[in-house]
UniProtKB/TrEMBL annotation:
CDD domains for this protein: ABC_DR_subfamily_A
KW Nucleotide-binding (keyword) present: yes
Keywords on record: ATP-binding, Nucleotide-binding
Database matches in InterPro entries: AAA+_ATPase, ABC_transporter-like_ATP-bd, P-loop_NTPase
PANTHER family noted in UniProt: ABC TRANSPORTER ATP-BINDING PROTEIN YTRB, SKFA PEPTIDE EXPORT ATP-BINDING PROTEIN SKFE
Protein known as: ABC transporter ATP-binding protein
Pfam families, sorted: ABC_tran (PF00005)
Molecular functions per Gene Ontology: ATP binding; ATP hydrolysis activity
Keyword presence, Signal: no
Organism superkingdom: Bacteria
Transmembrane residue ranges: none
Species per Swiss-Prot/TrEMBL record: Lacticaseibacillus brantae DSM 23927
Residue ranges occupied by any ABC transporter domain in the UniProt entry: 3-228
Length: 290
């Protein structure tokens, strides 16, 4: 049971947007997808559902190639926010249409979630606040029953109350029903504490896959400063995250006792360990080869 994308490529007009994308999503996990604006995150989601047809590669849903059997598409939930089918309709219309598309749609669950925020069936979606619109979309995802859920920027611009509600819905569905969520988000702090794994998309390709907990077992970020305002040679085995005056933040991906001893031999006036974050990895990746 998995959603597997192999060697996926997407061309729009004469421009190749995605190249050789390999991603997998397994039951009971939350996976992040990060990258700069315009890098192709939304295009990737649309290609999975064949809103854009791939020009290479393969998409398998629970072992079935979607090109050979499109009937498996409802096992993946995705809403295109730019072309939302109920943008000018009522919440009732959104639920009725979803029930036709997703065979396992649970209307009782959906209306229970609406009642929790005092949302009524007759209310027009377009008149809701930004946060409640996001809440309706995630509630549709939860009620869909689809084992694989794709959410594009689910936390963007939300107040803390709605954000917490959405986080709770996602975590509960993963824990209780072993569903899987792929979240494209600019909110790296949110993904840092939520995701089991994170894919980084850069220049239309997957530039890296990160498991922060595993990475933290071997990596070390340090704040360092030396009297001579010059880094010792051993420091160049790491990557500079930031530099202010004589103070450096450096990430060592494979920190060791030998590196530690060599740094201390340089008599640093400041040598403090720091928490490694997803933001650090993002900055590192964007600076590579520039």
């Amino acid at each position: 049971m998995s959603l597997v994308i192999k060697g996926l490529g997407t061309r729009i007009g004469q421009q190749q947007i995605l190249t050789d994308i390999n991603v997998d999503l397994h039951p009971g996990e939350i996976v992040g997808l990060i990258g700069r604006n315009g890098v192709g995150k939304t295009t990737f989601f649309k290609t999975i559902l064949h809103q854009y047809l791939p020009n290479s590669g393969e998409i398998q849903i629970d072992g079935t190639n979607v090109t050979q059997d499109p009937s498996v598409f409802p096992r993946v939930f995705y809403l295109d926010d730019q072309n939302l089918y109920f943008a000018h309709e009522s919440i009732r219309f959104a639920a009725q249409f979803a029930a036709m598309v997703y065979p396992d749609f649970d209307g009782d669950t959906f209306w229970r979630l609406m009642a929790a925020n005092k949302l009524l069936a007759r209310q027009p979606y377009r008149f809701l606040s930004r946060g409640l619109k996001a809440y309706v979309r995630v509630s549709l995802a939860v009620a869909s029953g689809s084992p694989y859920v794709l959410l594009d920027e689910p936390f963007e611009g939300l107040d803390i109350i709605v954000r917490e509600q959405i986080l709770q819905l996602i975590v509960q569905e993963v824990a209780d029903h072993q569903r899987s969520f792929l979240l494209a988000s600019h909110d790296l702090d949110e993904l840092d504490g939520l995701s089991d794994r994170v894919y980084m998309l850069k220049d239309g390709q997957i530039a890296g896959t990160y498991d922060l907990e595993s990475l933290r077992q071997h990596a070390q970020k340090l704040q360092l400063a030396f009297k001579a305002d010059q880094l010792p040679e051993i420091a160049h085995q790491g990557q500079v995250i930031s530099h202010r005056g004589r103070v450096y933040e450096i990430l060592f991906s494979n920190y060791s006792d030998a590196i530690d001893a060599a740094l201390r031999a340089g008599h640093p006036i400041l040598m403090e360990p720091m928490s490694l974050t997803l933001t650090d990895l993002f900055k590192m990746n964007q600076e590579d080869n520039q």
